[in-house]
Amino acid sequence: MNIGNYYLIVAIVLLFISFIKDKERTKKALKSVLKISLNVLPVLFFIFVIMGIISIFVSRETIASLLGSKSGIIGILLGEIIGAVALIEPAAVYPFSGTLLNKGASYAVIYAFIGTAILIGIATLPAEIKFLGKRFTLVRNLSTFIVIFIFSILIHFIM
User: Fold this and answer.
1) Which of 9, 28, 50 corresponds to the end of one domain?
2) Are residues 63 and 141 part of one domain?
């Protein structure tokens, strides 16, 4: 049995306990889960389609040359840029990264992609500027980009 089955069993048991304890709150929680699922599932589906297209149409050699260990700093920067502009849910970042890793991307590039995809959001910039100000947003995003770059370089040399 894989780990996903264990999670499913635990979730069912907890749902059963919750239902016994308070039926109304459990119904509200299930409605909330449904809303979240309806928002996330289309994005995950889109990511899985992109992963399939990459698997079929983009050769391992192409990914390895652009994002592999021999791509060095350019590959890391490319991974960071792609991550920063990707409009991708955090839950979809990991399967997509796994596909890139299997196609020849280096761990350093994957780290750069994951870090910027999660921590730098082009789509959320207007809200961040509105609530936190231009200067803070610029400093936070730039420093995040630089720190991720430094750690990616370290990972490049370690692995």
Assistant:
1) 50
2) yes
Q: Which DSSP state fits 80?
A: H
Distance of alpha carbon 98 from alpha carbon 142, whole angstroms:
26
Task: Please report which helix (H) or strand (E) contains residue 27, including its range.
Answer: helix 23-57
| CB 83, CB 116: distance < 8 Å | yes
> What is the Cα–Cα distance from 96 to 118, expressed in whole angstroms?
13
Reading the block at residue 124, the tokens are 């959320």
Query: How do residues 8-60 score in pLDDT, each as one tens digit?
Result: 899 899 999 999 999 999 999 899 989 888 887 887 788 788 888 887 888 88
User: 99 Cβ partners below 8 Å, 6+ apart?
Assistant: 51, 54, 55
Query: Is the entire prediction scored with pTM above 0.85?
Result: no
